[in-house]
Every structure is written in structure tokens, then in C-alpha cells.
Amino acid sequence: MKVLYLFTLSLLLSLTASARNITGLVYSDSTMTVVADAVCKLHEGDTEILRATTGENGIFIFRTGNKEALTLEIDKDGFSGTVILIDAGNKDIDLGQIALSEASTLDELQVEATSVVQSKGRTIVYPSQADLNASATTLSLLQKLPLAGLFADPINRSLTVRNGAPMILINGIPATMSDVNSLKPGDIAKIEYSYITPARYADKGKNGFLSITLKEREDGGQVYLWGRSAVNTAFLDANLQASYHQGPSQFTLQYSPSWRNYQDAYDYSSMQYIGDDFKVDIEQHDRNPFNYHMHGVSLKYDFAPSERTVFSARFSATPTSSSNRIMGTMSDNILGEYDMKSRNSSRDFTPSLDMFLRHDFNAKNSLEVQVVGTLSSSDYRRDNNYNLNSDDDLQYINDINNRRRSLISEVSYVHNFDQSTSLSGGVQNSVSHNTNEYLGQNFKPVLTDNNNYIYARFAKQINRVYLTAASGAKMLWSRNNNIRRHYIRNMSSANITWYPNQKWTFEGVFSYSPSLPSLSALTNHEVQVSPYLWSNGNPDLKTSENFFYSIAGIYQHRKFSVVLQAAYNNIKNGVFNDVVYMGGGKFMSQSVNADKYTGMQGSLMLRVSDIYGFGANASIDLTRYDSRVGNWDYHLTSLFGRLNLWWNKGPWTISYYRKFPGKTLFGYNVSKQENGDALQVEFRPDKHWTLSAGWWYMFDKKGTRYPSWSHSPVNPAVNDRYIKDNGNMVCLSAIYTADFGALFKRNIRRSLNNNDSNNSLLKN
Fold first, then answer.
1. Are the C-beta atoms of residues 335 and 281 closer than 8 Å to each other?
2. Would you call 594 exposed, middle or buried from its count of C-beta atoms within 10 A (0-12, 13-18, 19+)?
3. Minimal CA–CA distance to 711: which of 590, 593, 578, 597?
4. What is the mean pLDDT of each run of 10 residues along the chain (764 residues)?
């Protein structure tokens, strides 16, 4: 009997050790929401061997020691069932996302809860109908979702991750914030998010990753019109988009104007210039009215002859004009009391053509090719006048015309060995030719650069653990007139994610990325900007190196989620602006390298939604900064918080947003983040219109405030800037949408990003 018992136990242990997991996520292909309580049956031949149901997040899991070929049958009332064949073997199988089609009884089915799935190092969110009902815009929807580290600002209409803009994709392809702001929340099927930037986009200066997938549609057209304006301030933003699809083609026209004309902007500063043999104390009071207007226009054409091939082209241009004046009084212990007047203006125009081709050879291999050509012009004028007295005035003029030509090309290839293993790689190249003409100074530098980035990324799923590792080489050849430079740096990242069960996720992240000095920061050309201050580039700048580490734990259960995260950032040779004394009462402002910069951050985010129409999303960050420049060493601890509250009942939604700004430190400089709060009331009288009224910067007469401090031993300063125009702002907005039929399958629609940036223009 003992021998029989030991034999049986050994057999059971052997079968358990060789068992394989079969998992998947079930969703509706119509509403793009997950399907809970679907019945999943596993068959070997005609025999049912296991049965399970999907959870609230739509996920099912089987664990079986059967290595034979199996059949999976999925059924749910209100849907047409589906059958999936599973090959023989002993490896774990992730079937991914399984779509169920509607049946005639679908009207009786309601899926209310937002589903959050942690998969392959990303947070995947399927918005609930409750969150969609309470969100008039895509930014409003993103505010409500449990995406740790992603901050959606509805006032500035921006997204940030670690104080930088994330890499945004729509239907798997790079997109702009204007594209995001033109989306209807109801068109969004799912959102994928990662705190870390994938290797493919690591050289684009982005923080984090956000991918939005849209619902499928058929032939037809759509119009989306959004606009807002303030009652008591010269302020206007709008998004107008029209698209139409017929057969394999789609045309999209987009127009995004923005205008400001602020008269009540003020600055106060108290500073010193301290040299070995010279010291001056300055106090300045300014009124700084400013205005700008920009007109983003783009025309896109998409051609999809088959599901495996997509060609897209986009032409865009954004003419921009801005100007500001400074009218102030200054007092210093050398020149006495005097007036200061300044006028700055800029006109920019950047037309760009972006062409893209994607071809899927089969289910395992895919190739993408993209080429972006850009021509840009920027005319900058600045005139600073210091009226010491009627006979002794000082004037400093800096007029620059910049012309830039660039070509960006990229080839990317992905190979999937199986459902759990993939390898990708690519090559990116950017070449540019820049000319800065300093009017009246007989100086016309020519700046050229050839930037290359080669990378490879490997990903592997091992049971409940997902691993990625990526590495690449960044190579830059640049010439600034007769000065040539050559940089070669590594870029690497790694990610490990563990899913112990459906409620918990643990993640660890590492990334290393160099940041090469811009051509303008390296240009050696002195320009005087005030009686005491000159500015110049720094040809001796070193490459900045960023080491980032993060660990996080995520818990989610039904309508509640919590995220706890710790991060450490170490930047070697960080670049910041400093002032040095040149002697003879002359001070020079230029970019320099910091000796040390580190930041340690702890973050906590809580979210609850759809409790009798109520929802809340709150986060708090505690950060410790350490900075050292030469013998100067400074530490700063800062607290930063965000709060979103909303309530939805029928056509009405009331929401409140508030930001609790914290301080940041870099080099000698400390600044406080922009303040912000808004009370918003929205009303949807029908499916086409959404009307809303908001009260921004409530009970704040100074409006937006931007205090900052410099602890420089040469140029210590305290600055207080505020824009009274924004105080107690009343903002009205309206949205109109209309569908004429339905659009074609937008999971293959190309939304291109013209992301060339001009960093060669010196604006002192």
C-alpha cells in the first residue's frame, strides 16, 4: 500500500508540474467592452474536460495537464458563440483578446464596470459606459482612468508623464495631442499605457507610452466640432475635424486654431549680480501683455487595399505668430531708477509631409517604413530698451532669421516567434540643415546634423512573468560652421512584470538614455541682453546621461484600484542654465553641466468609479531632490497632488479638478509648478451636442502663478510671475458630432506625427 501511495503521489506531482495554462480575454466586438460571466468549455474530442467562466475583467484561465489538441468553446447569452482550436503541446498559451459578435438579444446585456487588464508590461483599460457617459472629451476620460503616472490637464489640454509628454499612438501609429483632442470618447475601444517609453520611441524625447485603439466602423463620414472661449478673457481654442471613407480610401481634414490676448500679466523679480570686484542689487516690476495665435491645418489620405497593407500620407502646416511687451521700472544700486521697455515677436511656419507604409507578411512578421520631410522658417525679433535718462539710453537688439530643412526616415521590423516571444528592431535617421542669420551682426552660422538610432528589443512571457530587454546605439555627427562633433552613446531599458493573480500586478523598470546637447546650446556667439548680462552657447557641454529605476505595485478589485510606486532618477552631466562672472562688470548666461542631480519619488494613486454615478481619482507624489554644482549642494523635498471628482446623472455631469502644485529643483534653480483648478458642468441634450460651463482658478485673483528661485552664488534671484487674466475665469464650451453612415475600420487608420523640432534657433 505504501508503494502504491508513493507511486500515485509521484504521478500526481508529475502531472501538476507539466500542466499548462490556457488564458484569454473575451470582449464584445461591437461595444469593445469586456464580457463577464461567459461560459468557457475545454474539450478533447467530444469530451468536456474543464469548464470556467470569465471574471469581471473578461479573463478566463484553465490549468490542464492534457497535452493533446483541444477545442475551446465560448458562449454567452446575447452573443454568438465561438470555437477556438488549440494545438497539442505542453507550453502555456495566451489566446489574447477574443471577440464575440452580438446576437439578437444583445439589448438585454449591460456591461457597466471599467475593465483593467495588466498584460505584457502595459495597463490595458476598456472604458466603461459609466466613464464614457461622464466624459465629454478624451482628456476628461483619461482623467478618470487608473493610469499610474499619467497626468491629464483639461485646462492646458495636455498629457504628461514624469514632467514630459508621452509617446502617443492612435491605432498603433504615432499621433499628436491635436489628434487626441479631436477624438470622441465614445469612439475609443481600449487604451494601453506604460510608464516607460518603448525602445522604438526612446530617441524621440518622450516620457511614457499611450496607445489608443478606436472602434471599427464602416463606410461613411464623421464631423467633430469642439470650441471653448472665456467670458471675461480674450481666449479661444477649437478643434474641427471632418473625415470620409469610401472603399479602401479615407480623407481627413483637421483645423485646430488657438488664440490668446492677455493684458494683465505681471512679473516681479529681485536679483543680484555678484562678481569678485563687482556687485549690483536689482529690483524689477513689470507688466507683460502678450498675445499669440496659431492655426494648425492638416490633410490626411489613407489607403488600405487589404488588411495586411496600409499606405498613408499627411500634409500639415501650423503658421504661428506671437508677440509680447515688457513695460517695467527697475532700480539698482549702480544705475539708480530707470524704465525698461521690451518688445519680442516671432513668426513661425513649418510645412511637413509625412508618408508611411506598413505591410504584414503574415501573422508573425511585419514591416513599417516612414519618411518625413520638413521645411521650416522662424523670424525672431527682440528689442530691449533701458531709458536711464533723456540723454543716455541703452538698446539691445537681437533679430534672427532661421531656415531649416530636415528629412526623417525610419524602418522597423517585428518578428513573433510564438504567442509569448517576440523580437523587434529598427533603424532611424534624421538629417538637417539649419541657417541662422543674425541681422545687423554679420554672423550667419550653418548648422548641420546627422542623427542615427539603431535598436533591438526582445520580449518573453514565462508563465505569469513578462520580461523585456532592449538596447541600441545613438550616433550623432554634427557640424557648427568649422567645428565638428561626433557622439556615440548606448540606450538601454529592461522591464519585468509579475502577475500573481487577477488582482495584483508588480512591475520593475530600468532605462538608460543619453541626451545630446542641442546645436543652439553649443553655438559660440555672444549677444548682450541687458546692461550687465550677455548670453552665449557653450561648446564644451557634455552629454547628459539619465538613469531611471522604478518599482510599482498595482491592486484592482471591481470599481476600486490603488497604485503604489517608487522611482529613482540619476542624471549625470545634467544641462541647466547658469550665470558666470567674466570680469569688468560683465556676466555671461549659458548652458552648463551639473555635477550631480538625483530625484527619489514615492507615489500613491487611488481610484473609485461608478458609485451611484460618483467617481474619484486622486494621487499624491513625495519627491526628494539633490543637486550639486561645484561646491554648492542643495536638497529639496516637495509634495505634489492631483484630485478629480465627478458625478453623472442622465445628461448631466458635474466635475471638479484640482492640482496641488509642488516644487522642482534642477541645478541652482527651484520652480513651483503651475496651479490649477476647475469646476465644470456639462449637459448633453441629445447625441449630437454637449454644452458645458466652467469656473477656473476659483477665488484666485492672481490667476495662474509661476514663482521661481535661483540659488546661484553669482546670480541669486526671486521671481514671481502671475497672469491675472486667468483669475476666476468663466469658460464656455460646446461640442457637436455627427456621423453620416460610419467610418471604415479605423484600426488600420493612419494618424501621422510630424515630429521634427527646431532646436537650432538662438532666442536670447
1. no
2. buried
3. 578
4. 49 53 82 81 82 86 85 82 80 83 42 63 83 87 84 87 85 82 87 85 83 79 92 91 87 93 94 93 93 93 86 92 91 88 93 91 89 92 82 80 92 89 94 87 84 93 90 87 81 91 88 81 84 90 91 87 93 92 93 93 90 90 94 93 92 94 94 94 92 94 93 94 93 91 38 35 37
Bridge partners, 358 (sequence order): 310, 368
- Beta pairing, strands 249-262 & 352-360: unpaired
Q: Quote the DSSP letter at residue 34.
A: B
* The Cα angle at residue 554 between residues 498 and 675, in degrees rounded to 5: 140
| DSSP bridge pairs for 478 | 449, 485
Q: Which of 657, 654, 650, 655 has its CA nearest to residue 684?
A: 650
d(CA 166, CA 194): 9
Neighbour-count burial of 409, counting CB atoms closer than 10 A to its CB (0-12 exposed, 13-18 middle, 19+ buried): middle
Show Cβ contacts of residue 198 under 8 Å, excluding neighbours closer than 6 positions.
167, 209, 457, 470
Separation of alpha carbons 182 and 317, rounded Å:
17
Cβ–Cβ < 8 Å for 145, 130: no
Distance CA 253, CA 264 (A): 36
75: how many CB neighbours lie within 10 A of its CB? 14
**The C-alpha cell of 530 is what?**
541687458
The residue type of 237 is D
